[in-house]
């Protein structure tokens, strides 16, 4: 049995994400094609699109490509493509937290230059994932217990450990959805 004093909580928290990333998620992204990246499994799916071709009023991006988005989100929630989900992971899950907590330059949905290619998106995802892991690894027990601060709005008083768990759940959730979309793409008529 482990004594509490000997547990490296930073490594245990990281293992939650890095195991999934290394064994399940990232290998499933190898070979992603541009066609599959932007494949729409149903009509009206939210996607990355050229500016002017967006399906939603609040589609956003800093260049020629924008990501579909609307507020409030329609009910039922729209199906999203692999490109959309990777964009969410790059910006909303890892990128903005890297910027708020680990020294990354600011990033948001409106200013990001979305990649129209799978390779470009995967390179951006890899970079944001690596920044996140490096940032979390820099947190010792005191850092994990410290409040996350105003960047997290109403959750400002929550400890970093809670933020780390939340981001890991989000990443694992969306990466599993991407794996399912790859399965559906491989078997669609």
Task: Summarize this structure as a short list of keywords or feature phrases.
189 residues; mainly alpha; two-stranded antiparallel ribbon; 2 strands; 52% helix
Describe what you observe in this structure.
- The chain is mainly α and 189 residues long.
- The chain has a single domain, classed as dinb family like domain (Four Helix Bundle (Hemerythrin (Met), subunit A)), CATH 1.20.120.450.
- Helices cover 52% and strands 3% of the residues.
- It contains six helices and two strands; from the N terminus they run H-H-E-E-H-H-H-H.
- The protein has helices at residues 9-29, 34-37, 82-101, 118-137, 141-145, 160-187, and strands at 48-50, 65-67.
- Strands 1-2 form a two-stranded antiparallel ribbon.
- It starts with 8 loop residues before the first helix and ends with a helix.
- The mean pLDDT is 95.
**pLDDT below 50 for ≥5 consecutive residues: which ranges?**
none
Approximate strand percentage? under 5%
Structural class, from secondary structure content? mainly alpha
Total beta-strand segments:
2
Strand adjacency order, main sheet = 1-2
N-to-C CA distance: 52 Å
Order of SSEs, N→C?
A: HHEEHHHH
Mean pLDDT: 95
Give the name of the CATH architecture.
Up-down Bundle
Main beta sheet strand tally, sense and closure: 2 strands, antiparallel
Q: How many separate structural domains? A: 1
Portion in helices: 40-55%
Please report the first level of CATH classification, the CATH class: Mainly Alpha
Shape: globular
CATH superfamily: dinb family like domain
> What is CATH's topology name?
Four Helix Bundle (Hemerythrin (Met), subunit A)
| Alpha carbon gyration radius | 18 Å
Q: What's the number of helices?
A: 6
